[in-house]
Amino acid sequence: MSAPRVFVSSPCAAGAQIELERDDARHLALVLRMKPGENITILAGGNPWSARLSEISSDRVVATIVERETHAASELPIEITVLQAVPKGTKMDDVVEKTVELGVSRVVPVRCARSYGGDSANKLERWRRIARSAAQQSQRLVVPDVEQPLRFSDAIARFAANSQVIVAHERAPHGSLEAALRTNASRPIALVVGPEGSFTDDELRLAREARCDIVSLGPTILRTETAAAAMLAAVAALLGWW
Fold it and tell me: Which of 42, 113, 132, 191 has its CA 20 to 30 A from that of 144?
């Protein structure tokens, strides 16, 4: 069994003592029931470090850095952003969790004309906690950010400037995702998923004017909380990353 992995914001060096965040401390002490002398992996700035627990209680854990670990690449070779129209209920939780597991670089909640879900400071903090937990579970080297929500027009304007923006839509022609990816020259990619009621004609027109690629995700209609993970997996497969 591999050592538990914990993200920290403190700089790391051999011999340094790092106090872990309280939630991580409680997980190691109360859930995993770890003891002083046991090993964990600490991740800081995209680098893994082997560490040994030197102090552990229910709300405080201190680890001593032993050495920097060598590691195989575990991040996608180019930056992928998911621009997700916020769905109703807690469905955004699933979007964040699954796209982080699949390697996304960031998630941006988007407000569309037909968005049913809302966003708030509390929801944003929850989504960020979910991203951190998913990154640890899937052995990512970094925690993808969940950014402040943007209006659809602002999101398209921001990412169309320096990324290939790919918009999923049920009326796009078969094979359009593969065709769009043939034009990518290792540019960052932004994957755009609409709300339960789909995009409006005005939103699609804005995306086309910004030179976004409008693509199909297959013959079936996917739920909004399914589409981002499906598109991310398809992109990774079609570009030969898997």
Answer: 113
